[in-house]
Amino acid sequence: MASVPSPRSTLAAVAALATALVLAACGTAPTAPPIERLPGAPQSQVPALPASENGNEVALYALSLIDTGYRFGGKNPSAGLDCSGMVSYIFGQAANYRISGSAADIARRGRQIDPSQLRAGDLVFFNTMNKPFSHVGIYLGDGRFVHAPSTNGKVHITRMDNPYFATRFEMARTYFN
Fold first, then answer.
1. Please, is 58 exposed, middle or buried when counting C-beta atoms within 10 Å of its C-beta (0-12, 13-18, 19+)?
2. Which residue among 51, 85, 117, 165 sits deepest, i.e. has the most Cβ atoms within 10 Å of its Cβ?
3. For position 131, which CATH number holds?
4. Is residue 13 part of a domain?
5. Which phi and psi angles does 145 have, rounded to 5°?
6. Residue 125 backbone dihedrals phi, psi, to 5 degrees
């Protein structure tokens, strides 16, 4: 049986992550590669949001939803969230930006980036159901992402190098400049 972290250790982890995000925002970001479209992607891409401030807000808001219950098709925390509903909700609340649809729909928008360029608030996509882009999470930094997996029943943080997710990683996308 997995142990539940104490409120003090959770608060310490959130404080450490917030500090890391603030410090990371002070660095310079690499020049973004040109937009790459997925097969079937619409011709017009969504406009990009300002980078570091909104990305950090998205990541911090995602942390506030840790332990929110999972619900297939869920789009708000009180009823429960699935992975795409979590992303849609967080981007709407933290960045005042509407993203909607399934994980695969969300993967068709934004701009594809190399995983080495991931920053707080970027999206990471996985093939968890033997179909492309069936799961999405929000990258936090330090090799970790927040997501709403059905298997654990709650929004939580997972490492990108977790064997299950590392072998199912498909791509990273950003909605930020």
1. buried
2. 85
3. 3.90.1720.10
4. no
5. -140, 155
6. -120, 145
Q: Distance between CA 92 and CA 70 in Å, rounded?
A: 19
Range of the domain at 76: 48-174
Comparing C-alpha atoms, which of 147, 175, 15 is closest to residue 86?
A: 147
Q: pTM for this structure?
A: 0.74
Question: Which two tokens mark 43?
Answer: 């011709």
Report the C-alpha gap between 116 and 16 in whole angstroms.
Answer: 22
Asked if the structure places residue 164 within a domain, the reply is yes
Provide the residue-wise pLDDT of the chain in tens; the chain has 177 residues.
Answer: 444 455 444 444 444 444 343 333 333 333 333 333 344 444 334 455 555 578 999 999 999 999 999 999 999 999 999 999 999 999 999 999 999 999 999 999 999 999 999 999 999 999 999 999 999 999 999 999 999 998 779 999 999 999 999 999 999 999 998
Give the closest residue to 59 by CA, choosing from 85, 84, 7, 95. 95
